[in-house]
Amino acid sequence: MPRPSFCPACGAPIRWTITEARKRLAVDAAPHPEGNSAVSRDGRGTWLSRRPTEDLPLAPYEKLHMPHVATCKARQEEGPLTRCLGVIRLDDRRQGRGAAG
After folding, report:
1. What is the C-alpha to C-alpha distance for residues 1 and 89, in angstroms, rounded to an integer?
2. Is 62 left (phi over 0), alpha (psi -120 to 50) or beta?
3. Does any domain span residue 98?
4. Can you tell me the distance from the alpha carbon of 48 to that of 62, in angstroms, rounded to the nearest whole number?
């Protein structure tokens, strides 16, 4: 069984999933009735996520989870989305530099 993961920004428990596009997505560990990610496990124990649609609604073996980026406390307090995602804002890095010539 995989070890629990925690958000590096706010410390909340998260679950890493693989989307249909084969990208990693952090969702809150607990199911949420207003979530928009259908989460399930495959036969190897990998957590999968997808966006339910009218053509392919939520299956009985899937639970709705909220993407963690939507609920991250650090993001809500500090504002920029980039901290939770681990992205560097270049504008913040360029402030100390002189004008390029």
Report:
1. 36
2. beta
3. no
4. 10
Residue 64: inside a domain, yes or no? yes
- Identify whether the C-beta of residue 12 lies closer than 8 Å to the C-beta of residue 72: yes
66-82 pLDDT tens trace: 999 889 888 776 555 55
How many whole angstroms separate alpha carbon 46 and alpha carbon 77? Answer: 32
Tens-place pLDDT, residues 3-13: 778 998 888 99
**CA–CA dist 8, 86 (Å, integer):** 9
Domain boundaries, position 40: 5-85
Total domains in the chain come to 1
Q: Which two tokens stand for residue 47?
A: 């957590």
